[in-house]
Every structure is written in structure tokens, then in C-alpha cells.
Amino acid sequence: MKAILKIYQLVLIVLLLSFSACKDALEPEPIRKGGIPGVVENFSSKEIPGGAIITYDVPEGSDLRYVKASYILSDGMERESKSTVYKNTITVEGFAKAGEYDVSLTAVSVGEVESKPVTVRVTVGTPPHLLVAASLANDDNFYATFGGINADYVNSAEGNVVIRVMIKDAHDKWQEINAEYTRAKKGRVRVRGLDTVEYTFGIYVRDRWNNKSDTIVKKLVPLFEREFDKALFRHIKLPGDTWERHTGQGRSAELPVLWNGLHNQNGSIFQTKPSTVIPQHFTWDMGVKARLSRFIFYPDIPPSERNVYTGGQPSVWELWGSNNPNPDGTFDASWTLVGTFHATKPSGLPLGQLSTDDIALARKGEDFEVEGKVEAFRYWRWRTIANWGNVTYVAMSEFTFFGAVEE
């Protein structure tokens, strides 16, 4: 029996060796090898953020397949870029900082036959991750806001980067709390949900080659948010304002119903005369110098909910603030544009068609965040730019504002 097993083992070994030999014989060989290509000549370079574009004369020869650039990145890894024979440029990128670098250019023909390499010295521009980090280092772009912080960045090179936000814990260790991947030209990274105590924040930027900026460290205290007291609000009538109510509305429907707290109730609606024009605006005194963080807008919800997102209900509007408005009512330098806002219809359905989500949002009220660092203002203007029904009047129910009072 043992003799039989040994025979089987020998047969198996022979078969395996035969298969291996056959496999080696079947490995594809290059059909042919081309001649040694000529060297890359007459080159020049142009810097770009984090890299350079090299222009050259493509070597002659029907066997030429591509030109290869070889260079070393900051982590010590060698990187290659390739360009076809149909182009006379090649891009090198991924450098950690601006400066001069050596790049080796090689022409490659059929069968991976390479020419003699030539070295070109290129100048590399400031990489995108460092450009973004520089924008974040500006105090005006990295600041405390209501319940957290904002970090406004500029990515002029439109590089693929990730912006990482960290916070120091009780043990003085960094903990990541947000990461935003972007190639947008500009944007904002937000952190919310924090208490109104001092935190140590850190931000750094990394690119897709794992190059990292230095960490920008800043101590900030998130701002406390409160609802502004509507009992202090007062209607201000300035020349050019539109405040006269629709004749079909009762006297109880004057403009101050917008802050009476009775949203979504029939009769508590402000509607201007149909003979007015769009855009139109009105002015009120908040009673205190208010730095806005956000507001809730409640549209006009008639007894029949099928009329939501139609008629004179604002779809686009502006908020303006002032501490010393010109008594002639003009939009001059005494007024500052705080923001432009667009109402959302969740379903996206055409005019006159509604979903349950549409009605639910209208009843709940739509929440709008005020962007950026906003100055505190006492006097405010609501300027309706467009409405859902493309009509010449405005109809709305209520608004509620939040933020901080400044003395």
C-alpha cells in the first residue's frame, strides 16, 4: 500500500512540474522590441499650483509610444507621469511645497525600450493645500459663531483637498470633529452643537498625495443664541416702503401681525395691495441691536392648504440691516445687505401641485441660517424679490429671529 501511495505522489509531482513548464511557455513575450528612441529635447516648463507643465519636442520614430517623467515627492516616494506621442506636454504634480525640483524625462518605444534620460529643472507653484490653509489662517475666515465655529476657505487652484477640524479634549489631545472633502473654489466648513465655553480648535489641510499643512490653532468661544423679543418690534414707515394692507384684509391684518406669534392662523396674515410692484420692501425696528444667527419664516397658509407655495408668498427675498437709516428711505450706504434667501418647496412640483412634505414644511416654518460674520443692527428691512405666483403683491404670516443682543 505504501508503495502505491509513493507512486501516486511521484505522478502528481511530475504533472505539476509539467503544468508549470507549460504555463511558463505560454507567458506572452513582446511581439518585438523597438529601437532605442531619441532623447527628449528642447524642453521648457511652466509652474502650476503644486506642480509644473513641461513642454518638449516629441522624439521622432514610428516605434515611440510615450514620454515618461520621473520625480521624487517629499515622502521619498518616486512618482511617474506619462504622456502619449500625440501630446508635447507632460504634467508633474504632488509636490509638498513651492520650489525648484529635478524631473527626469525618458522617451519609451515598443517593448518598453527607453531612451537615455535627461534632467529638467522645474519651478513648482504653491500647492493647493497650502493655499487653502493660508486662507484659513486669516482671522476673519476662522471665527466663532452661534453654537460653534465657521471656517471660510478659498481654493483658487480648485485642488482636491480635505479640511480637517480638531478640538482639544480634557487630556490636551486632538480629536477630529469634522472633515470636509472639496475642490470648490470657495466654501465654508461648519461645526455646531458646542457649548458657550472656550475651546482650542485646530485646522489643517491635506491633499491627495498626503501632503499636510501646518495646524492652525485658535482659541474661540461659541456664541450664545437667543430668540429676539417680538414685543420690542416696531413698524417703521419710510418713504418707498410698502406696508398698506390688501383691502380684503381686516384692520387686524396690518404689517405688525408678522410678529404677533400667531402663525398658521386664518386672519393673521399680512398681504399688500395687488396694485403694488415687485420687488417691494418694509422696515421695522428690532428694539435692540441684533446680530442675527438664523430666522424662521412662516408663509401664508390659507384655510385651504392647496394654496401654499403660490400667490404672493415670497420665494426669494433679501434682509438688510442698519443702525442709522436714511430718513428718505433710500437703499444707500446706511443699509447693509445681510443675505439673499430662497424658499424651498421640498417636492419641486409645479405651481399648484403639493406633496404632504410641502405642507408640513410650510406649517413648521422654514429655517434659514445667516451666513458669515454679521454686524449687529437695530433696524431691518425685508425686501421681496420674487414670489411663487409671480403676482404683484406679497402675502406672509410670521417670522421669528434668533441671535445675540449687542449693547
Automatic annotation (TrEMBL):
InterPro entries xref list: DUF4959 (IPR032527), DUF5000 (IPR032164), DUF5126 (IPR033431)
The protein's name: DUF4959 domain-containing protein
Ranges where the DUF5126 domain occurs: 126-230
Domain DUF5000: 259-403
Organism name: Pararcticibacter amylolyticus
Database matches in Gene3D superfamilies: Galactose-binding domain-like
Residue ranges of every copy of the DUF4959 domain listed in the record: 21-123
